[in-house]
C-alpha cells in the first residue's frame, strides 16, 4: 500500500514537472513552421527591408553631405560680386560641391540680366537639386505602404490553409493540423507591420532632412538676390 502511494506521488511529481516545462519557439523555428507560403512572404518582406535600409542610409549620407556649407560662403560671394570679381565667385562655387553653391553659381552666370530672369534661373536649378535630393525616397513610401498589405496577404493565406485543414479533419479538430496555417497568418502580419513601420519612419525622417536643405537653398538664394537688388 505504501509503495502504491509512493508511486502515485512520484507520478504526480513527474506530471507536474512535465506540465511546468514551458515551450519555447525561436524566430527561425517560427518562420520555418509557417509553411512554404509563409516563408515566401517573409522572404519578400526581408528583401523589402534590405532595399529600404539601403535607400535610407544612402539618401541620409547624400542629404547630410548636401547640407554642409561654409558659414562664410555667402559673405565671400557678396564681396566678390560687389568688387566685380565674377570669375572668383564662380571658382568659389565650383570648389564647394553643394546644392546651395550650384544655385548661386547659376545666378552668377545670369548677372547683368533682369532680376526676374536670374530668379527664374535659380528656381529652375533649385527644382533639379530637389529632384536629386529626393531620388528613390518615394520607394520608401511605397515600401511602407506595401509591406503591411503583403503581410496581411500572408494572413489571409494562412487562414485559408487553416480552414482547409479544418475542413479535411473529418469533424475532429487537431491543433497540429492548424498550426502551419496559424503560424503563417501571425508571422507574416508581424513581419509586414515591422517592415512597414521601419519604412514609414525612414521616409519621414528623410523628408524632414530634405526640407531643411531646401530651406537652406531658399534662404541663400534670397540673400543672393537681395544683394543684387541693393542700390550701388
From TrEMBL:
Membrane topology: Multi-pass membrane protein
Listed transmembrane segments: 36-57, 137-163, 183-203
Source taxon at top rank: Bacteria
Keywords (A to Z) from UniProt: Cell membrane, Membrane, Protein transport, Transmembrane, Transmembrane helix, Transport
Subcellular location: Cell membrane; Membrane
Signal peptide: none
All residue ranges annotated as the MotA/TolQ/ExbB proton channel domain in the record: 96-218
GO biological process terms on file: protein import
InterPro entries per the UniProt record, alphabetical: ExbB/TolQ_transport (IPR050790), MotA_ExbB_proton_chnl (IPR002898)
Family in the record: Belongs to the exbB/tolQ family.
Name of the protein described by the UniProt record: MotA/TolQ/ExbB proton channel family protein
Species, as recorded: Jejuia pallidilutea
